[in-house]
Design goal:
139 residues; YjbQ-like_sf
Length: 139
């Protein structure tokens, strides 16, 4: 079975946001699979997807604080500045984290570890709504 759909995420503030339940709720055929894969592709270059801690929100805060420290918006050698000082750092962070995830599906659920969740990394101060393509394959 193959299934593909677009998921629209509401605008979020800069930082990392746990979106696991939002993704699962947007892919109803997931519950019908005994085994398979869910591939998520974010259709943006200034946000990212990653799999990380799902319990303590301090982890998401600390990850964002680390990025802001390591990739500030005022580096003098940045040339791509027409879209604002947060844009080039957002492109770098999106490339470092990536914009795609492929997750195992087992018995109608994502086969995640106990403390794992899907994060959206919003790397712009005002990134706006985000779109993903979710492709489900399995039996």
């Amino acid at each position: 079975m193959w299934d593909q759909q677009e998921i629209r995420l509401a605008p979020r503030s800069r930082g990392f946001h746990l979106i696991t339940e939002e993704i699962v709720g947007s892919v109803p055929r997931l519950s019908t699979l005994k085994r398979g894969l869910l591939h998520l592709q974010l259709l943006h270059t200034s946000a990212s997807l990653t799999l990380n801690e799902n319990a303590d929100p301090d982890v998401r805060h600390d990850m964002d604080a680390f990025l802001r420290d390591r990739i500030p918006g005022d580096l003098p050698y940045f040339r791509h500045t027409m879209e604002g000082p947060d844009d080039m750092p957002a492109h770098i962070a999106a490339s470092l984290f990536g914009t795609q995830l492929t997750l195992a599906v087992r018995d109608g659920r994502l086969a995640l570890g106990t403390w794992q969740g899907i994060w959206l990394g919003e790397h712009r101060d005002h990134g706006g709504p985000r779109r993903l393509i979710a492709t489900l394959n399995g039996e």
